[in-house]
Amino acid sequence: MNGQPVSGASARAGREGRGRAAARLTALALGAVLVLTGCGGGKSGTADAGDGGPGATAVADGPSEAVVTIAPKDGAEAVATTGALKVTARKGKLTAVTVQDDKGTTVDGRIAEDGASWTPLHHLAASTRYKVHAVAKDGQGRESAKDTVFTTLVPQNTFIGHYTPEDGSTVGVGMPVSLNFTRGITEPEAVEKAITVTADPEVPIEGHWFGNDRLDFRPEKYWAAGTKVTVRLNLDGVEGRPGVYGKQAKSFSFTIGRSQVSTVDASAHTMTVVRDGKEFKTLPITAGAPSTTTYNGQMVISEKYEVTRMNGATVGFGGEYDIKDVPHAMRLSTSGTFVHGNYWASAGTFGSANVSHGCVGLQDVRGGYDKDMPSAWFFDNSIIGDVVVVKNSKDKQIAPDNGLNGWNMPWAEWIA
């Protein structure tokens, strides 16, 4: 400026320039305000809730409408092992249900397709404390949960099943799984459902009841050699009859050894041993005499004794015989049919005549010490579960429940 006075025109021009600059700054400021306002317009109170406005956020953040109900109630005691546990949801769908005992064992269950209920797949154990945790979601995806604890009843009366074969044993191809219960069962479906029998390699296995206290399982045909069979007894808490509960929760397994099926021809007085499908040995035998014939049919060796006592009085023959040292005896029936060594008949009897009281006799010596005797050989080459088939005897077929002899029942009848 150099201290020079400014002319009027210059002064006006300067004022106008400053005014235009101020206007531009004002416009920019207003533009900035408009831009900021425009960016935030989607969150205004007039926005639609479906666009994520405050209305939608308030619903999502609110309490869930889903209501979870668990029966029995929290803290309940003496709860029934079947039918009492129920989990349901209203105004929502169940998404997760966990039921565990104090050992961490989980109860398997299934949520219904509509999400309204959860059902256990099997009974509960007796005398057991359970924890239940259930979660449901309402229509807005909000979760609601509930937890309860209850204890099942303590049974006053119980039952178990005595089973064969033994855990870890190797048995023949004819061995069924046989369970004999200590109490008569009036709810067979509940008991059978709590028992699973599986095989490797896999094969269909079905159970059959003999009366109300025995349940056997087998495949349609003899087991294949080398099969591994596993049995799981989940009987703890099963009400087998009114007020009587199972108390077993265990598993056992056994292996099928080589295949051996021996056929006794009572008319030809021979026994042919077939091992793994090939004829292995033929032995001379004596079967039941005309008045005390041997049963026909498929029989399974269920017991083996190096020596045993045989008394006719125990099987309905009065005092006809009482032999205290019968060697190499193998049981074929509950009623007293055996394959055993015979040292009291002459050597010429075997292979030519039937003189026994219904058993299959093989030549032997008293004391059974001679390993070259047919009876000793057969005893040493047989295992529990091997099959002995008797044919051409003038007797009826053995009953399927007389021993482990369910193979004499047709498959269609077995599974009926």
TrEMBL record:
InterPro entries reported for this sequence: Big_10 (IPR041280), LD-transpeptidase (IPR050979), LD_TPept_cat_dom (IPR005490), Transpep_catalytic_dom (IPR038063)
UniProt keyword Cell wall biogenesis/degradation present: yes
Pathway assigned in UniProt: Cell wall biogenesis; peptidoglycan biosynthesis
Pfam families in the record: Big_10, YkuD
Keywords: Acyltransferase, Cell shape, Cell wall biogenesis/degradation, Peptidoglycan synthesis, Transferase
Residues of the L,D-TPase catalytic domain: 260-391
SUPFAM superfamilies cross-referenced by the UniProt entry: L,D-transpeptidase catalytic domain-like (SSF141523)
Active site residues of this protein: H340, C359
PANTHER family (UniProt xref): L,D-TRANSPEPTIDASE, L,D-TRANSPEPTIDASE YCIB-RELATED
Name of this chain's protein: Ig-like domain-containing protein
